[in-house]
Amino acid sequence: MDVFSRKHVIVKKRTNKFTRHQCDRYKKIDASWRKPKGIDNRVRRRFKGQIAMPSIGYGSNANTKHMLPNGFRKFLVSNVSDLDLLLMHNRSYAAEIAHNVSSKKRVAIVERALQLDVKVINAGGRVRAAESE
């Protein structure tokens, strides 16, 4: 686990979001990015001192794309049989239990993950209700 994360250093070229031009000026303009299309727009024309536009140069390294800080990649699991897919990939993928899985099924998934030596990211979710029974 730790050896893998040291092998590939995760470099984020930009961590803050790209905001829409003039979203700070008007309440009606949402912050989510939209490409400016005006003929005189200074952001589109890339004038000095203006907000940055998204471009392919901000993309992540292909080796570390979608990688978590612990060196694993997420794999969404809804039942125990989904977990068996990670049998041969337990050093590169970590299971994440889906949000709509019941606490009873979560316990079964976590038990099976221990047998397969698969890391579960959100293993502690909804466990308090199961402990009180």
How would you portray this structure in words?
The chain is an alpha+beta fold. It is built from 4 helices and 2 strands; from the N terminus they run αβαβαα. A two-stranded parallel sheet has the order 1-2. β1, α2 (80-83) and β2 form a beta-alpha-beta unit. The radius of gyration is 21 Å and the shape is elongated. The mean pLDDT is 91.
Can I get a quick summary?
This protein has 133 residues and is α+β, with helices and mostly antiparallel strands. It has four helices and two strands; from the N terminus they run αβαβαα.
Relevant terms:
elongated, 2 strands, alpha+beta, two-stranded parallel ribbon, 4 helices
What's the arrangement of secondary structure elements?
Layout: H1 2-7, E1 73-77, H2 80-83, E2 93-97, H3 103-116, H4 128-132
Cα-based radius of gyration, to the nearest Å = 21 Å
What is the chains' assembly state? single chain
Amount of helix: 10-25%
Largest sheet: 2 strands, parallel
Overall mean pLDDT stands at 91
Q: Specify the overall morphology.
A: elongated
**Spans with pLDDT under 50 lasting ≥5 residues?**
none
Strand order of the largest sheet: 1-2
What class would the helix/strand composition place it in? alpha+beta
Terminal Cα separation, in Å?
34 Å
The count of DSSP E runs of length 2 or more, i.e. the number of strands, is 2
The helix-strand sequence is HEHEHH
State which percent range the strand residues make up: 5-15%
Q: Total number of helical segments?
A: 4
